[in-house]
Amino acid sequence: MQRRCRSSKTCSPSSATILSWDSPHMNASVSAYTAHAPLQPRDATLHGTLSLPALCAHLQDAAGAHATQLGVSQTDLLAQNQSWVLARLQVELDRLPTWRDTLTIETWPSGLSGPFAQREFLFRVDAEAVGRATSTWVVFDQTRRRPARPPQVLSELTWPDRPPALSADIPEVEVPAQPDYTRRFRVRFHDLDLNRHVNNARYVAWALETLPIGWLDAHAARGLTLHFKSETTANTPVAATATVFAGGPEHAPLRVVHHLYHADDDTTLALAETRWAVR
């Protein structure tokens, strides 16, 4: 049985072209995929803990490896002039792994709606659960620069019969009227990925770098909500703002709302909320 995305609001299909092909790798039933990522110094902050951009990169790697196993990898899609693009992501962390840990990531697809495909993640260190994430992906038409429907073979699968990693839909992020911090960036060659636009982990890095080093040094990440609104290509001037909000109820994390936009025409590129605990 095909499973649908949990929210019609966040998964409403937009205008999309149709992509379909047969894959010899496809099975009628899908199992979760498990990846083991030994964390390296390059994955760590100055505190030795896993950084949010590095975590996003590892989640993308695990999703890509599972897509390869299912016969719908980036390579498979690129042959059709298509690619997978991350549209939304929500991450909740119980604690941050350190660079000496091996991060075990369990991931599985959990639904389709129009051009959108839902994917879940659980991550552990040894037997300890350290976090979870849910994500929404879209197949992107490289020529038309617009969404395309996922491969037909995906709609013929039986998804794993298990609850989503996070119980709630990915919430929207509202742009504050008065930001606390603003920085500008320009898209460089090494910011670009196979799709010739900025990779999702780079957006996260820009959002965080808008905050002062002293602020980042004093806080530990506990969560991330991310919405991609428009692609960003080479030489684009990007402005990023950050607004810090108090945590609210006792023990609630601090919230920071991030807005990344085209510095020349104010087009929103991405919206994010990061959540933090004081070290």
From TrEMBL:
Highest rank taxon of the organism: Bacteria
Keyword Lipid metabolism: yes
Keyword set, alphabetical order: Fatty acid biosynthesis, Fatty acid metabolism, Hydrolase, Lipid biosynthesis, Lipid metabolism, Transit peptide
Pfam families found in the cross-reference section: Acyl-ACP_TE, Acyl-ACP_TE_C
Record keyword Lipid biosynthesis present: yes
MF GO annotations: acyl carrier activity; fatty acyl-[ACP] hydrolase activity
Residues of the Acyl-ACP thioesterase N-terminal hotdog domain: 42-149
Entry-linked CDD domains: 4HBT
Domain Acyl-ACP thioesterase-like C-terminal: 182-276
Family: Belongs to the acyl-ACP thioesterase family.
Protein name: Acyl-ACP thioesterase
Taxonomic source organism: Longimonas halophila
